[in-house]
């Protein structure tokens, strides 16, 4: 049986105040390192006056993951590493966690920083809704106008199957994203409904 891969379903937010420093935690879905870094750039733009924007991310399937992190000026090992440890412990992937800090004037020390960043990351994770990652493939279905309605009905009745685009020319081309586990069954249903007057590409 395939391993279940769990990813963020939406963004979560958390805020803690520790010795007058404000810590704001976010968890986001990020499918690639590029996406993770784009999210961080947008946060840095949003929180221009923050003292630090620390982050860690894990992307990819369990056997081929990309990980990254940045302390953003905090003492090495006190900020991003604790966040990454929290992410590893969650067993989630395709996730970026950022903690924004506004310094409140009281130094926390090495242990205090580790604790603060760990707690903020955990707090954001606790509020995070997750979902299972499903392997999907795209397929283009070409049918006549006569069969279009019945084919569209089959596609839209299946959960997790999404229409990406529809092109109306001599025939109708429907580009669809289908979970790999359902591909064979959906193709068979469409063939039956159209008496095999259909092409797949």
| Biggest sheet strand line-up | 2-3-6-4-5
Number of helices: 5
The dominant shape is elongated
Q: How large, in whole angstroms, is the Cα Rg?
A: 23 Å
Query: Helices and strands: which structural class?
Result: alpha+beta
Assign a percent range to the helix content. Answer: 25-40%
Strand content: 25-35%
- Ends: how far apart? 28 Å
The total count of strands amounts to 11
Q: What string gives the helices and strands in order?
A: EEEHEEHEHEEHEEHE
* Biggest beta sheet summary: 5 strands, antiparallel
Average pLDDT, to the nearest integer? 92
Low-confidence stretches: none
List the helices and strands and how they pair.
Layout: E1 6-8, E2 12-18, E3 21-29, H1 33-46, E4 52-59, E5 66-70, H2 80-90, E6 95-102, H3 109-126, E7 130-132, E8 136-143, H4 145-157, E9 162-168, E10 172-179, H5 183-193, E11 198-200
Antiparallel strand pairs: 1-7, 2-3, 3-6, 4-5, 4-6, 8-10, 8-11, 9-10
